[in-house]
Amino acid sequence: MSQGLAHDAAGAVLGPGHPPGPGAGPGAGPGAGGGAAVRRVLRFLVRRPGLVLSGLVVVLVVLASFRPGLFTSRDPLTGVPSQNFRSPSAAHWFGTDELGRDVFSRVVHGAQLSLKATLIAVVVAFVVGSLIGLVAGFVGRWVDDVLMRFVDVLLSIPALFLSLALVTALGYGTVKVAVAVGIAGVAGFARVARAEVLRVRQAVFVEAARSCGARWYSVLGRHILPNAAGPVIVLATLDLGSSILAVSALSFLGYGAPPPAPEWGTLISDGRNYLANAWWLTALPGLAIAATVLATNRVARALDGEWSRQR
Amino acid sequence: MRGYVLKRLAQAIGVLWAAYTLSFLVLDFLPGDPVSAMAGAGSDSAEIDPAQLAALRHQYGFDKPVLAQYADYLGRAVRGDLGDAISTGRPVTSTLADALPGTLQLTGAALLLAVVLGGGLAVSATCTTRRWLRQLLLSLPPLGVSVPTFWVGLLLVESFSFRLRWFPAFGNDGLRGLVLPAVTLAIPTGAQIAQVLSKSLLTALDQPYVETARAKGAGRWRVHLRHALRNASLPALTVVGLLVGQLVAGSVVVETVFARDGLGRVTAAAVTAQDIPLVQGVVVFGALIFVLTNLIVDLVYPLLDPRIVAASGRKAGVA
What we know:
The complex is a heterodimer of chains A (311) and B (319).
Chain A (H helix, E strand, L loop, with lengths): L1 H13 L15 H17 L2 H18 L36 H37 L1 H16 L2 H12 L3 H11 L1 H16 L2 H8 L4 H37 L11 H8 L8 H30 L2
Helix pairs in contact in A: 1-10, 1-12, 3-4, 3-12, 4-5, 4-7, 4-8, 4-10, 5-8, 6-7, 7-10, 8-10, 9-10, 10-11, 10-12, 11-12
Chain B lengths: L1 H27 L5 H9 L7 H11 L5 H13 L13 H36 L3 H8 L1 H5 L4 H15 L10 H32 L2 H8 L4 H39 L4 H10 L3 H29 L2 H4 L9
Helix pairs in contact in B: 1-13, 5-6, 5-9, 5-11, 5-13, 8-9, 8-11, 9-11, 10-11, 11-12, 11-13, 12-13
C-alpha cells in the first residue's frame, strides 16, 4: 500500500505530463479516471507553488549535472586573468574568481561532481542499510540482535566523526568522501527498513501466502519487499538533502576532489580567502547548495504522505 | 532506580567498547603507512634508515599481528591511555583534554541558543492566531536545516565582521568572539528542535486535556505553556539528546571557518595528517558524548513526566 502511495506522489511530482500510477483510481475505468486524476494532480500542484518551484530546481540541477553545456558555454577551469574579481553582472552572473574564471560556470560544472558524490552516498546508505534492516527483520532472533547492536554503535558515533574516520582510512577524493558519507548514513536506513519488514511480516496476506506453501524467497520478494519499500524510498529522498550538505562540508574541509575541480564545497573554501573583497565567491555557490538542498527536502516532504493526506 | 542506572552504565560501557572496536577496524584498513610518513616528516628527502623504521614500528606495535595489537590497545584504552598522537608525539588524551574547553564553550553556547531559539519559534508559531505569521514562522525550520553551516558562518563573518565590524572574525577571545560561531552552530540544531517541538505541540493541542483546560477558563498562553508544552517537550528532549553529538561534530566545520582552537580543529588536523590514534580518540570521544547526553536525558524524563519512573525499567530502549 505504502508503495502505491509513493508512486502516486512521484507521479504528482513529475507533473501533469505524466499519467499517475495505476494506484490513483482503483475504482474508475482507465479513460474516465485519467481526466479526473490529471485534474486532481493539477489542483494539488497549483495549491503548492513552492513544491512546483522545488521540482523545477531539482530538474535544473539534474540537467546541469548531465548537460552543463545547456547552461553555460564558458570553461570552468581556464579563465581570463585580466578579468579577475569581476562582481556579478550580465556577462558573469556569479562574477569571476581570482584567476578570472566564471563562477557560474564553475557552479554548473560542479553540480556534476557534487551530485555524483551525493548519489553514491545515498545509494551506499540505501543498499547497505536496507540490506541490514531486511536481514535483521526477516531472519529475526540472534541475527536481528547482532545486526541492530551494530547499528546502535553506528548511531552512537556522530555522523561527521564517522565520515572523517572513514576518510582518514580511505583517503581523499570525491568517490571516497561519498562512500564515507554513505556509510555514516547506513544506520537510519537499517532502522526504517527493519521496522517496515517487521510491520509487513505481521500482515495477514503474508500469513496467507505462507499457509499456501509459498517459499521464503517468494514471500520476501513478492509480498514483503514491495510493501516495505515505500518509507525506505521516502527516507532515501530525504537523505539526498543531508548527503549534499555532508559531502559539501567534507569537500569544504578539503577532503574532496583536488584543487582545480569545481566541487561545490571546494568552491566555497576557495572563495573564503577573498571573503573581504569578493563576497560573491562564497555567497553565490553556497546559495546554489542551499537552494538544491531546500528543493530536494521539499520534494521529499511531498513524497512523505502529503499527497495521500490531502484527499 | 539504582538497578536501572547500573544497567544503563553497563550499556554505556558496551557502546564505548564497540565504538572503539569499530574505529580500530576502520582505521586498520588504512592503506598508507603512518610510520614511514612520520619518519619522513623529520628528514625531508634523506633516505629513511630501515632500522629506525623498524624501531618505530615496534614502538607503536605495528609489527605485531592485528589481534595482538587490538588486545594491546584495548588494554591500554581501558586504563585511559589512548596512545600517542603520531603527528605530535603527545598523548591523545591530553591533546583532547587541552582542546576540549574551547569546544565545550562553543557547543554549550550553541546548544543554549538552539534550545531557546528553536523552542521559542515552535511555541510562538503554534500559539499565534495570525495565519500569515504562523506560516512564516513554520517555514523557517526547513530553511534552517537546508543551509550549509560553513556557508552561514562565512556569510556572518562577511557581514558582521568585515562590513559592520561588530564581532571579531577569527580567534578564541572572549564572549564577543563566541557570538558568531555559536549562532552558526546553533542554526541547524535549533531548526531541528523547532521542527520536532512544533509538530508535537500541535499533536498535544489536539488532546482532550487541552480542551478540559480551556473549558476551565485557562488562557491561551497558560494552556500552551503549562499544559501542552510540558507533554510536548518529551520528543524534543529525545532529539536534543541525539543532537548534542552532532553539535560537537559540527565544531569541526565551525572552528575551521572561524579559526578557533578546539576539538574540531584538532580533528581536522588529525584527518589531514592521517593521525590514526588521534582520529580514533575523537571517535571514541564522540561516542562518549552520545552516551553521556542520553544518560542525562533519561534522568530528566521523569522530571517532565512522573509516570516514566514507574516504567523506567522498560524505558531503556527509548533514547
